[in-house]
Amino acid sequence: MLYELRIYTIYEGRMDAIQDRFKEHTFSIFTRLGMKVVNFWIDATGQNKLYYVMEFKDMAQRQRLWEQFKKDTEWIQVKRNSEENGGLIVEKIDEYFMNQAEFFGLGN
Fold it and tell me: Strands of 90-98's sheet, edge to edge?
């Protein structure tokens, strides 16, 4: 499996907007497209950041699914609507790709 850690830096004052967008739209679009979110976190120190991990079979599946997501008409409309009144939400996205260590879980 391939895991992708995504870290979103959110513009000041837009944390509620990103959370609403995920809760009301993004997660259901991910599900419809076959994209699996393993876990999701909001920064505990007050930074305007959220973090989530996605699971893919391999990099080829990851690339294919993200391309489908970016072109999805529902997503395009949701993004447009969520940014219409308050402006941009996500300032920066950092992506990290990981494979689980073979030894994890042994003796833990």
Answer: 36-42, 49-56, 2-10, 90-98
- Give the separation between CA 59 and CA 81, rounded to whole angstroms: 30
DSSP state of 25: I
Give the strand pairing for 36-42 and 49-56. Answer: antiparallel
Average pLDDT over residues 1-15: 97
Question: What's the pLDDT tens digit per position in 54-87?
Answer: 999 999 999 999 999 999 999 999 999 999 989 9
* Angle, alpha carbons 57-60-62 (nearest 5°): 65
Phi, psi of 62 (to 5 degrees): -60, -50
Note the helical H segments in the chain: 15-21, 27-33, 59-71, 73-84
